[in-house]
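Proteins fold reproducibly. Consider a sample protein:
=====
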Amino acid sequence: MVSQKIFKASLMALVVSAGLAGCATTATDLDLPQATARAETFRSEFVVDPRDNGLTWAQQGQLEMIADQYKARGHGPLVISYPQGAANQQAAMHAIAEARNYLYAAGLDWRQIRGGVYDAQGAGDGALVFSFTQYEAVAPDCRGWNNLSMEIDNQRSDRFGCFMAANLAATIADPRDLIAPRTMEAADGERRQTVLDRYRAGQSTASERSDYESGAVSQVGN
């Protein structure tokens, strides 16, 4: 009688362990579709007319667009190339200085802006070229779903998670985040010193909140 109970207990333990082994699927076993990104070169240009006294309104508007695009998705230096040997070479070189000042005023650091040159011999008036590296998101191909009702071995589909990855590729702000995380910005030394001074003085280190930031529930209509 005792041996029969031991046999039943051993059999039950074997069934439970087999079930748990079947359910144990590690994340490394799931080759799910992923959103990726590829590098591409952003390029924008305009021709500087030697007869113009500085950049035109249209060119300033174009520089504003370039600055916004660089701040949103630009990586590496923003290179400004002038046409060496072109009829308007001197005017283009003078325009670079004005363009650098404009980009700096738009929020770019001087160290992010580099100079370049390209051969424009015999090209008449050459263009001022602005270029930098940005990334484009690449969504996985979600076509080709198999009939899940015919999966007699109860295996997962290799398309699981595909549309989630596609939505991520369509909505991500900077596709380079799909390749590597962003670096952390430098700590605010002034704020850190303020917190330390308050802590040493026995004062609250929390930021002060105005009346408009109150978390009280409105009583209107109650």
Notes: Residues 54 and 98 are 8 Å apart (CA to CA). The domain at 36-138 is CATH 3.30.1330.60 (60s Ribosomal Protein L30; Chain: A;).
